[in-house]
């Protein structure tokens, strides 16, 4: 008999909602506490990719088809230089058929909407966790309004600067690791298959510490992400110029459609995000007693594998399954970490290494990188990426 009758999840992001859905479908009474009070703020965000492994995990919750309906299938992943030269091209459709699940491009808000609908009335907005205490029988969660809630288990899914993590580690934690670059993310209205074709994710590698990613989300919208190393960003004049002007100037010599994508974007749509992670040797334990972390609260990673959301979804499926089957909560949490830790550590390390290569400024190093990608990335690089991606553990 499962030891968990009820659960509290802190954070209504992708990992928190996935965990809650899995627990509720296992018959466990679950509430999600979300500090943001407005659904509009909760369902905001740019675009991103969900790879096959994430869709297979969502299938465990019977949500993969619904998520596929709000995304666009990515059938090619194309790597290019900042001079427009193709470095490698991955045909994703055969992999989708082989693994039985597509890769998708979609709005983050679209995924969150699906998950919120599936979580139902278990999501409580405007409820901020400020602390907790646990004993042998359960966990008492303290809220900012002075009230307490009690449950058999507490799941911290409250992001990279997690309150649950901070309390669990008694306020002492090794610092996050700054990756040395900023991601300028946006969605713009830009119709036209001749400008950005549907079904291809473009991954452009430049000289001087610059990258640019883009893909079509639907017939009207394009998602893009300009990645600038701190050595570049230090020269940005953010006092005299708008974000769009800075991006347009930085990428003015890049091939079409990059300048056109930036020019079409509203100023308010561009969101700069400094990128951090936690290296595996700084993560510490993910759980203690009846409290456990998932997603970015446990193991934030850089964006370079497009696996942050995927690993959070895998976490949610794995944890909810183990908690619904075990007769002792601490043992279920220990098994969850043992199952997931090595896989996530590999993802964190690989994503960090890819990002470090993107910071290179030397023309000679960048030329060598481009040559390596032309020679190896379409074959061995793709196989190694899929080997790591599809070693699913949930």
UniProtKB/TrEMBL annotation:
Keywords, alphabetical: Monooxygenase, Oxidoreductase
Record protein name field: Salicylate hydroxylase
Tagged with keyword Oxidoreductase: yes
Keyword Glycoprotein: no
GO molecular-function terms, A-Z: FAD binding; monooxygenase activity
Highest classification ranks of the organism: Bacteria, Bacillati, Actinomycetota, Actinomycetes, Streptosporangiales
Highest rank taxon of the organism: Bacteria
FAD-binding domain sequence ranges: 7-166, 281-348
Stored InterPro entries: FAD-bd, FAD-dep_Monooxygenase_BioMet, FAD/NAD-bd_sf
PANTHER family xref list: MONOOXYGENASE (PTHR13789), PUTATIVE (AFU_ORTHOLOGUE AFUA_6G14510)-RELATED (PTHR13789:SF309)
């Amino acid at each position: 008999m499962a030891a968990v009758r009820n659960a509290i999840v802190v954070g209504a992001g992708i990992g928190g909602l996935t965990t809650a859905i899995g627990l509720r479908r296992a018959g466990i009474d679950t509430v999600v506490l979300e500090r943001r009070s407005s659904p509009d703020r909760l369902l905001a965000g740019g675009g991103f990719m969900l790879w096959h492994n994430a869709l297979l995990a969502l299938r465990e919750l019977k949500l993969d088809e619904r998520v596929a309906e709000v995304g666009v299938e990515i059938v090619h992943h194309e790597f290019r230089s900042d001079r427009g030269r193709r470095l490698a091209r991955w045909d994703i459709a055969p992999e989708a058929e082989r693994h039985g699940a597509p890769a998708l491009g979609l709005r983050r808000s679209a995924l969150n909407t699906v998950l919120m609908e599936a979580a139902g009335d278990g999501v409580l907005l405007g409820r901020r966790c400020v602390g907790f205490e646990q004993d042998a029988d359960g966990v008492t969660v303290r809220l900012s309004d002075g009230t307490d809630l009690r449950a058999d288990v507490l799941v911290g899914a409250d992001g990279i600067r997690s309150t649950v993590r901070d309390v669990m580690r008694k306020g002492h934690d090794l610092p996050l690791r700054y990756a040395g670059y900023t991601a300028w993310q946006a969605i713009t209205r830009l119709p036209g298959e001749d400008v950005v074709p549907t079904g291809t994710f473009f991954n452009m590698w430049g000289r001087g510490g610059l990258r640019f990613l883009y893909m079509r989300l639907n017939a009207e919208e394009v998602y893009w992400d300009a990645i600038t190393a701190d050595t570049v960003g230090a020269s940005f004049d953010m006092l005299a110029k708008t974000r769009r002007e800075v991006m347009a100037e930085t990428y003015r010599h890049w091939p079409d459609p990059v300048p056109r994508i930036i020019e079409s974007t509203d100023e308010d749509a561009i969101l700069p995000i400094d990128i951090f992670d936690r290296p595996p040797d700084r993560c510490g334990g993910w759980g203690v007693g009846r409290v456990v972390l998932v997603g970015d609260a446990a193991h934030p990673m850089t964006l370079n594998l497009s696996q942050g959301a995927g690993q959070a979804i895998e976490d949610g499926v794995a944890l909810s399954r183990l908690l619904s089957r075990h007769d002792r909560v601490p043992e279920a949490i220990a098994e969850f970490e043992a199952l997931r830790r090595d896989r996530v550590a590999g993802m964190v390390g690989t994503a960090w290494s890819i990002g470090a290569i993107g910071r290179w400024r030397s023309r000679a190093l960048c030329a060598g990188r481009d040559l390596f990608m032309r020679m190896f990335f379409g074959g061995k690089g793709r196989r190694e990426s899929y080997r790591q991606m599809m070693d699913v553990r949930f």
